[in-house]
Automatic annotation (TrEMBL):
Coiled coil: none annotated. Could possibly oxidize fatty acids using specific components. Transmembrane segments: none annotated. This is enoyl-CoA hydratase. It comes from Seohaeicola zhoushanensis. Belongs to the enoyl-CoA hydratase/isomerase family.
């Protein structure tokens, strides 16, 4: 499939989505939003894909929503079109998605990264929610996901001032899982994604589902939900294969990959 604003390539069992508007630091316009969602939905029903990586360029993962596209719009227009509402589909998808971030991840770019299941970043990454400087506010989870990930103090400071966080601070705060040297970021993200894609999909999808749900329900409900999913996995061929392979001291060959 060919797109105008992104590249989508199969790398083994991984779909690599590269945001590709380098001349505007991958600013997210309506076409790009539609194409990212379309590529993710296609991956969801593609048996050859077990994990997705979303990345940008060395200079920018994405510098936010496209300001030039937003500038002429007024309330009625964005309300009727439910501007940015399409992005709600991303966290509802079920296959694991990794954000590999180098350079700027600002505004909608930071929010897109936070919609992914986890963020690997390079030492050049800069995260921020600068919407306040434009007289607006985050609209794709910046006040919600960022607060859950890094806590109210940091989220509030970042959202109210628009200051950027370095990669080191982002790792310390729990926004990213790991920081790697810039030149190694993509290889590392693809390696991690290939590892995940080699596992049983019912297992990775259930882990993702339960982990995400932990942000929305009580601890007791979450633990009960987790246990039900675990018990359900005892019904899969891959559970049988995984356990017998361990006992026979060989690598498992999962059927549902
Ligand atoms: N939108 C449109 N164009 C952009 C954007 C953007 N967000 N960011 C950069 N560009 C363009 C610049 O206009 C410039 O274009 P040109 O060469 O034609 O002048 C080109 O990219 C290169 O940018 P700079 O010359 O500014 O590069 P610098 O290295 O000097 O600065 C910065 C890099 C600091 C990242 C700077 O470009 C910047 O501050 N960008 C804007 C960041 C921002 O405010 N982002 C938030 C946008 S609002 C938002 O995301 C709302 C979210 C609501 C929901 C989101 C749904 C997707």
């Amino acid at each position: 499939m060919t797109y105008e604003t992104i590249l989508a390539e199969h790398r083994g069992r991984v779909l690599l989505i590269t945001l590709n508007r380098p001349e505007v630091l991958n600013a997210l316009n309506a076409t790009m939003a539609g194409e990212i969602v379309e590529a993710l939905v296609a991956a969801e029903i593609d048996d050859a894909i077990g994990c997705i990586v979303i990345t940008g360029s060395d200079k920018a993962f994405a510098a936010g929503a496209d300001i030039k596209e937003m500038q002429p719009k007024g309330f009625a227009e964005v309300y009727v079109a439910d501007q940015f509402g399409l992005w709600d589909r991303v966290p509802m998808l079920r296959k694991p998605v990794i954000a590999a971030v180098s350079g700027y991840a600002l505004g909608g770019g930071c929010e897109l990264a936070m919609m992914c299941d986890f963020i690997l970043c390079s030492d050049t990454a800069r995260f921020g929610q600068p919407e306040v400087k434009l007289g607006i506010m985050p609209g794709m989870g910046g006040t919600q996901r960022l607060t859950r990930l890094v806590g109210q103090a940091k989220a509030m400071e970042m959202n109210l001032t628009g200051r950027m966080m370095t990669a080191e601070e982002a790792e310390r705060a729990g926004l990213v899982s790991r920081v790697v040297p810039s030149a190694e970021l993509l290889d590392e993200a693809l390696k991690v994604a290939e590892t995940i894609a080699g596992m049983s999909l019912p297992s990775t999808m259930s882990i993702r589902d339960a982990t995400r749900r932990s942000q929305e329900i009580s601890l007791a409900e979450g633990v009960r939900y987790e246990r039900r999913l675990l018990q359900a996995l005892f019904g899969t061929d891959d559970k049988a294969e995984g356990m017998i392979a361990f006992i026979e001291k060989r690598k498992p060959v999962f059927k549902h990959r």
